[in-house]
Amino acid sequence: MQLINRPRRLRSSEAIRRMVREHHVRIEDLIYPMFVMFGEQKKLPISSMPGVHNYSLDEYLLALKEVVAAGIPAVLLFGIPEEKDEVGTGAYDHHGIIQEAVRLTKLHYPNLYVITDVCLCEYTDHGHCGVIQEGRVLNDPTLKLLAQTAVSHAEAGADMVAPSDMMDGRVAAIREALDDAGYSHIPIMSYSAKFASAFYGPFREAAGSTPQFGDRRTYQMDPPNGNEAMLETALDIEEGADIIIVKPALAYGDITYRTKEQFGLPIAAYNVSGEYAMVKAAAEKGWIDEKRVVMESLVSMKRAGADLIITYHALDAARWIKEDES
């Protein structure tokens, strides 16, 4: 019997495979998360995230040279304050660490797109993402502080703000505050589908944001709930979100797919710290081919519907993409 359809014809060489490839990870798809802190000449390695550091501002500027040289278009900044308190004052301080990092970035690299994480957990002494009263996270009082934080980031020169707290109504509160302050042009990239995941452990080491009591399950979503993610996303879009984040990425490809199919907005998949740490650990053991696993993982996010990828692998991925194109 003669076979008419032979899919292997289009797999016979690298040239034809590249020509008919359905999805691509491009350098311009990548957003690189970075951790900044006060001090000088500090580049502190994060033990659970090999290759990732907490940077003092001078070392942060040196690290940005590599980011810009790699062609990565955007960074997502997380701040480590010198002091913490009950209401996360450092998050919205005019001279807070994020505010100073944004000013410094725009002074030296005005074309680098700067996105700022808007949350209180790195700045509160209890490690929760909002105001606490009698052991409970208060939603509405937290909104005012988040809005104040977002405006302070915009004043410093941030190009985009990314609320990650998961309080009800925070996108609307931030949108209104930005508009009232004259920043209607600043987009919001909302952590709309953010799950109470076990994959966040290394980040909490990096940011010093582990809750001092309880957990975040009363505001982050329960992992089994896909329909709830669609509800959260719909609410955030109604409130003014411009880009939707799905977090984590690898275990939630179905959420990325559903979000893209249902809403059509740009989506950023957050390839989180635990996902990064697992790959790094296995690669160090020689159990996997790091480049192939990373690139296969990233392209899976694009295939699921992500337009952007927030990943700690960004520097390596950008290098590999350039090598493959040369």
Automatic annotation (TrEMBL):
Catalytic reactions of this protein: 2 5-aminolevulinate = porphobilinogen + 2 H2O + H(+)
Family named by the database record: Belongs to the ALAD family.
Positions bound to Zn(2+): C119, C121, C129
Superkingdom in the source lineage: Bacteria
Catalytic residues of the enzyme: K194, K247
InterPro entries per the UniProt record, alphabetical: ALAD, ALAD_AS, Aldolase_TIM
Function: Catalyzes an early step in the biosynthesis of tetrapyrroles. Binds two molecules of 5-aminolevulinate per subunit, each at a distinct site, and catalyzes their condensation to form porphobilinogen.
Subunit structure: Homooctamer.
Entry binding sites for 5-aminolevulinate 1: R204, R216
Protein's name according to its UniProt entry: Delta-aminolevulinic acid dehydratase
Positions of Mg(2+) binding: E232
NCBIfam families: PRK09283.1 (NF006762)
Residues annotated to bind 5-aminolevulinate 2: S273, Y312
UniProt KW keywords: Heme biosynthesis, Lyase, Magnesium, Metal-binding, Porphyrin biosynthesis, Zinc
This enzyme's EC code(s): 4.2.1.24
Gene3D superfamilies: Aldolase class I (3.20.20.70)
One example of a Gene Ontology biological process annotation: protoporphyrinogen IX biosynthetic process
Organism of origin: Desulfitobacterium dichloroeliminans (strain LMG P-21439 / DCA1)
GO cellular component terms, semicolon-separated: cytosol
Pathway: Porphyrin-containing compound metabolism; protoporphyrin-IX biosynthesis; coproporphyrinogen-III from 5-aminolevulinate: step 1/4
GO molecular function, one term: porphobilinogen synthase activity
Cofactor: Zn(2+)
